[in-house]
Amino acid sequence: MAKIKLITFDLDNTLWPVDEVIRRAEQQCRTWIEDKHPDAAALMTVAKVRAIRDQLLRDDARYLHNLTALRRDALARGFRDAGYSDAEAIRVAQQAFDVFHEARNQVMLFPGAREILTHLADRYILGALTNGNADLRLIGLADLFAFHHSSETIGRRKPEPDMFLAALKSSGSRADQALHIGDHPLEDVGAALEHGFGAVWANLLSQRWPQELPEHPHRIQTLPELRDLVTLLDA
């Protein structure tokens, strides 16, 4: 690997834990619907909306690359099924999604996240590569990243090469000058290596490495460990 120029980060479960965040955001969205549209809420149960999302994915695989459109369109279909006109269903679904999205970006960073990002941003180009729909501006980290690519903005999710290629173009780097850090063994570590990046497994949630995959030598369990590891990899 050449001298490191670019470091890219996955976001959810790499810089903050996300599962409880999503549950809380869905509950706040549900509460908003119950408060503002109780007639629809009676029909739009959690199970019903989840079933609509599953059906949308079966009908159109492109939703896999755009989770915002999937969630928003599922809400719109739920409102239509509850008797709303198409225009009204779309309008109200956007309002409900906005409630979800605001709560979805109220995250608690893993310990040391901001400090290590600040340290690395002084020395390398930082980029964000995510399959999710986190908003770094709302989270308050946008100033530390030179760019933020997602499956929504690029049109393809990891492990496809598109996001990694976009990162190289945005940074003016070569793949052998790039290091990707993420929690997913396949979508982050495996994909990064396949596309010529170096990779670090961010195992901050103490997950098991899949037995069917070859062991990966570079891993961290806390973000501050990146300070020494990146220095070592860049030596």
UniProtKB/TrEMBL annotation:
Keywords, comma-separated and alphabetical: Hydrolase
One of the Pfam families matching this protein, by short name: Hydrolase
Provenance organism: Alcanivorax quisquiliarum
Hydrolase listed as a keyword: yes
Top-level taxon: Bacteria
Name of the protein in its database record: HAD family hydrolase
InterPro entries in the cross-refs: HAD-like_sf, HAD-SF_hydro_IA, HAD_sf, S-2-haloacid_dehalogenase
Molecular-function GO terms, alphabetical: hydrolase activity
